[in-house]
Write a structure and sequence with these properties.
The complex is a heterodimer of chains A (498) and B (339). Chain A is an alpha/beta fold and 498 residues long. Chain A is 35% helix and 26% strand. Classes of the chains: A alpha/beta (498), B mainly alpha (339).
């Protein structure tokens, strides 16, 4: 049977240096919810961008309703019947709900906008979704869930055949998700094909009919929802193609080591629920969990970037209150953020300036490091970490990702932290640099620092960590130590099957 | 990289001076006037008259490096003058001529205007750093109402004074040079020290380039923004004292008029990008002098004063286009091809 409304065949997209998509096939039936799954960088959004004309494919074909199409841009894709709702609501918060739905295609009367008609039709449309709201109010007046509904209403009203939902639920609570699902089921019943991207596996199993899994730009497979257990799914998403290049000693703390950090019942509303943790000196704690499970949010909370609103925290036995990153810095904590470009590097400053930044911030600007001291520090870390650069005056923005990451590491190593939090320090860098960074972490543990290591790659978590904290749905769900830390066990907990 | 940006401004300045020299062969001559103990000449005059803008632009450089702008500086010049003259005013009922007269200790005549302007700068900083307002909007408030404050302080009147010590600030001489030049040198030297001999400059650049990363590195970004606005307020106050000492009066309507634009221009001509990031105080000084040179040139060309602004705009447009990224890339490519 071939009732596919959409077929993507042998799609290939080449980005500078990497093959973002390599011979990927994808199909969508009418009246189906098809989940697109994979870790970050797997190629999900590239595939969607290809379908909506944002990225041009280098090879392959897209067939919509039996006709080959070549979307030029999202507007063109929309006229072809492909509507997309992106993760961030991309509407205008200052316009009214009704205006947002009809912007660009307002019904006219006597060459003037027919406001009454706009409001009437908007109300009608939304009430179809079970939403009874005042459509003349500005969009920003309503919650994110309703805003999300409005953007879906807009996407649906343009007579779409295919609706793409890119992480629509990441900012919704349970009730709101159910509302969204009800709308999705109605649309499905009307024969629309829906591509659903999410990191929440529960939702995948609740709403989808089929799923397609991508990994590193390759198609892993397409399965019916009942063909694949959760554990199998997570295994496929994460893969096992990591070569065990280096055998590493796990950094386990001796049981009599001092407790370096003790967090009790910390939490940030809507981001992290009730989080407690003890870390000993010299211990490496790995945070495992899918993206959106609250790993990054927890790290940001511990470091004071998004301060905890409750609970207490002790460092080396003393009560501390960490409300800003500055507080954390003064308490000898360090944090390498996940998004290197956005939160890590100061692109136009030199390697030297980037390295001394945190140390200088702790000293305050009135006690500057002398130029000689800065030079000495920079040279030492360039050598120690093997940063590939002719000298310390090169702009950090001109370095490769792996080297930028090393500079950020150097920035924090220079402060001689007691607690070092690393959020995905090995993402997007080549395997050699990856192993070097893993070694460095363990070396720091040996010297008495405690490290919190967040990674999406279970393999490296298991290889390095003495203790593994598993996060799911913004909560810490398990803490495994020593021999309990096996891939199987962690996968089961992540998948929620245990 | 950094030098090439300043180089453009320096070359433009040299070119303008050469044009002046062609029109007036005695342009560079400097003479000594024994009666006042001061050196006179066009160059001295350009430096002297650029003082007000150079001083303000030192602070403006920091704010622009942080990715903002301060529109209120011109109004603060008026406020500074109003406060000073309120304390210096010539009481018409007691004296027939503007005389040596103050209503309080001369120390306060100097310090209070600066304190008021610093507080206004802090107000700007508060709105931007804590209130999260866009700098251009936040400073618009004082740009508009600052002159109103100045009017209220002086009951809408224009006071004049003849107080000799006050006259020294704008018209006196020290080491044969006009005092404003001396003040400018001190301010520039201090700012150079403050930004490059402490880590303040690096922090300003870091926050201007990537505020989020700076915050996560432990830099108190709000504090840096606070200080930059406070310093700019203070320097506007200094500039206001010079201005009002030159005219020995306060003028709430015209004092510091359009100074914000000239200061921003000086910074931009000096090679600091409006999007923030790396800044150059030396470039700003050159930029400020360049602006003044243009005004001088306009007089020498005998251009009617109505056309001054248009002529100024024309030259600045050329300089800025020459400095723009695409043009510089194009030029450096051509240079690379030739060699």
């Amino acid at each position: 049977m071939n009732n596919n409304i959409l077929e993507m065949k042998q799609i290939e997209i080449q980005f500078p240096g990497v093959k973002a998509l390599d011979k990927v096939d994808f199909s969508l039936k009418a009246g189906e919810v098809h989940s697109l799954l994979g870790e970050n960088g797997a190629g999900k959004s590239t595939l969607i961008k290809c379908l909506t004309g944002v990225n041009k494919m280098d090879a392959g074909a897209i067939i919509l309703d039996g006709q080959e199409i070549r979307p030029q841009d999202p507007g063109h894709a929309m006229t072809l019947g492909i509507s997309t709702v992106f993760q961030e609501v991309n509407l205008c918060p200052n316009l009214s709900v009704a205006e947002n739905i009809f912007v660009g295609r307002q019904p006219m009367k006597y060459h003037q906008i027919n406001w009454r008609e706009i409001n009437r039709r908007a109300e009608e449309l939304l009430s179809g979704f079970g939403l009874k709201i005042d459509v003349t109010r500005p969009l920003s007046y309503y919650s994110t869930a309703i805003q999300q509904m409005v953007s879906i209403a807009r996407a649906v009203d343009v007579k779409a055949k295919i609706l793409i939902l890119d992480e629509p639920t990441s900012s919704l609570d349970t009730g709101e998700v159910q509302l969204l699902f009800r709308v999705m089921r109605e649309l499905k019943a009307e024969g629309m094909g829906i591509i659903f991207i999410t990191h929440f596996l529960d939702q995948v199993y609740e709403i989808s009919d089929r799923m397609t899994i991508l990994r590193n730009g390759h198609l892993v497979g397409t399965y019916g929802i009942s063909e694949l257990s959760r554990v199998e799914l997570v295994t496929m998403m994460i893969g096992k193609d990591f070569s065990q290049m280096f055998e590493l000693e796990r950094a386990e703390a001796s049981p009599d080591a001092n407790i370096a950090l003790e967090a009790e019942h910390l939490g940030v509303p809507g981001k992290v629920e009730d989080f407690s943790l003890k870390i000993r000196e010299g211990e490496l704690v790995g945070f495992a969990g899918l993206l959106g499970s609250g790993r990054t949010e927890t790290a940001e909370m511990l470091f004071g970037a998004v301060p905890s609103s409750r609970g207490s925290m002790k460092l080396e036995g003393h009560d501390v209150k960490i409300n800003t990153p500055g507080d954390a810095l003064n308490n000898r904590m360090a944090f390498c953020p996940e998004d290197r470009k956005r939160d890590g590097i100061i692109s136009d400053l030199s390697i030297r300036e980037n390295i001394i930044l945190a140390l200088q911030a702790r000293r305050g600007f009135m006690k500057p490091l002398t130029r000689a001291e800065q030079q000495e520090l920079a040279d030492r870390y360039i050598k120690l970490l093997g940063i590939a650069t002719p000298d310390a005056e090169k702009k950090i923005g001109e370095l490769s990702g792996g080297n930028q990451q090393k500079v950020i590491l150097a920035r924090w190593m220079a402060t001689q932290p007691a607690i070092l939090i690393l959020d995905e320090p090995t993402r997007g860098i080549d395997i050699g640099a990856k192993a070097e960074i893993q070694k460095l972490m363990l070396q720091m543990c040996e010297e008495g620092s405690s490290v919190i290591f967040i990674s999406s790659e279970l393999d490296e978590i298991i290889r390095c960590s003495g203790t593994v904290v598993v996060m799911r749905d913004r909560k810490k769900v398990a803490e495994l130590a020593g021999s309990e830390c096996t891939q199987q066990k962690i996968l089961e907990i992540i998948a929620g099957a245990a | 990289m950094k030098n090439s940006k300043i180089l453009g401004a320096v070359m433009a300045e040299v070119l303008l001076l050469l044009v002046c020299l062609v029109i007036r062969p005695d342009f560079f001559s400097i003479s000594y006037q024994p009666t006042t103990g001061m050196l006179y000449g066009n160059i001295i005059d350009i430096l002297n008259r650029s003082s007000e803008i150079t001083i303000i632009a030192m602070g403006m450089t920091l704010i622009i490096a942080l990715g903002g702008t301060d529109l209120s500086v011109g109004a603060l010049v008026a406020v500074s003058g109003a406060v000073a003259l309120k304390l210096l005013r010539w009481d018409v009922l007691e004296y027939n001529t503007p005389g040596d007269y103050t209503v309080c200790n001369f120390f306060w005549v100097l310090v209070l205007p600066l304190v008021v302007c610093t507080l206004m700068g802090l107000f700007n900083g508060f709105l931007v750093a804590k209130g999260g307002m866009q700098p251009i909007i936040a400073t618009l408030i004082l740009m508009v109402c600052g002159r109103g404050v100045a009017q209220i302080l002086t009951d809408g009147k224009q006071f004049t004074t003849g107080y000799a010590p006050f006259k020294v600030i704008g018209q006196g001489s020290f080491l044969w040079l006009p005092v404003p030049i001396i003040i400018t040198v001190i301010v520039v030297a201090f700012m150079a020290w403050f930004t490059r001999r402490t880590a303040f400059g690096t922090f300003v650049e870091a926050v201007g380039i990537n505020r989020s990363a700076s915050r996560l590195s432990g830099i108190n970004a709000a504090m840096i923004i606070f200080i930059a606005f406070a310093v700019t307020g203070l320097l506007s106050g200094v500039s206001g004292l010079i201005y009002s000492s030159r005219i020995m009066s306060n003028d709430s309507n015209n004092a510091g008029l359009n100074y914000e634009m000239d200061a921003i221009l000086a910074v931009v001509i000096g090679g600091t990008s409006m999007t923030g990031g790396k800044f150059s105080l030396a470039g700003t000084v050159v930029g400020s002098i360049l602006i003044r040179t243009i005004v001088t040139l306009v007089y020498y060309f005998g251009i009617v004063s109505e056309a001054t602004m248009a002529f100024k705009a024309l030259i600045i447009a050329v300089v800025i286009v020459l400095q723009s990224e695409p043009v510089r890339n194009y030029l450096s490519k051509r240079r690379a091809k030739k060699s």
